[in-house]
Amino acid sequence: MNETTKEKQANVELKLQELLAVYLRKWKAIVACALLGAVVALCFSFFFLTPMYQTGITIYVNNKSQTTEDKVNSSDLSASIYLVKAYMILATNDTVLSRAATELNEEYSVSQLRRAISTEQYENTVMFTLTVKHSNPKEAARIANALGKVIPEVAPTVIEASSAKTLSTAKVPTSPFSPDYQQNALLGGVIGLGLALVYFAIMYLRDTRVKDENDLTEMFQIPILGRIPDMDAETSTDGYGRSRQAETKEG
Questions:
Q1: Looking at the whole model, is its pTM more than 0.85?
Q2: pLDDT tens for residues 23-55?
Q3: Which of 165, 172, 190 is nearest to 80 (CA)?
Q4: Residue 134: half-sphere exposure toward Cβ, Cα within 13 Å
Q5: Which of 44, 137, 181, 209 could bridge 53 with an S-S bond, Cβ 3.0-4.6 Å?
Q6: How many angstroms separate the CA atoms of 79 and 82, rounded?
Q7: Would you give the distance in Å from CA 76 to the centre of its chain?
Q8: Do the beta carbons of residue 113 and residue 99 sit within 8 Å?
Q9: Residue 83, SS3?
């Protein structure tokens, strides 16, 4: 490694140290920006985001042949697991949703119901959950229970040799699942912190004033021949009683 490369690395390390020193001097402003970001995010979540409630039901899917046999063999179980995916697709199909809309007195359209529901299969089982999200907790439970009634009735007429059963009824949720105020406040704080760090870094990079001999050598590639001492600086004595300068002006 040549001398020029070493000097460049030393300058980079020095710049990073100086930037860190800037952050340490401005730590109060940085913390204030982080707190401000958290407060802004919290206020936005509280006043502008609509609370959403979530509830759901569990549906058990099986091969119709299981209802006529005392034992469940592996082929029936595999067929039931395969049918779960078909039932999940059917749960968001117009055939089921239009029937659910009728059950709900046509208060919701098929597209509105489709946007409100989601399905998820329990891993490698014959059961899946149907989740409903709504701004009204009572309506969320009402929609879920309507679907819990309609799916076992309609799906077997579409998917032959199958049946389904709703294992649970939807409960009215007592608290919203979104927005997550704590998470949003944390995210706002991180954004405020990041913006503050970027701002002070830009201000540091835009500062082109010559502060020490390293700036001179970097700008002009010339050696420093001497320094002008700061005559106003306080002096102190070394261990031998001799006076020494506490600070020097560089030039």
A1: no
A2: 999 999 999 999 999 999 999 999 999 999 999
A3: 165
A4: 22
A5: 137
A6: 5
A7: 41
A8: no
A9: helix
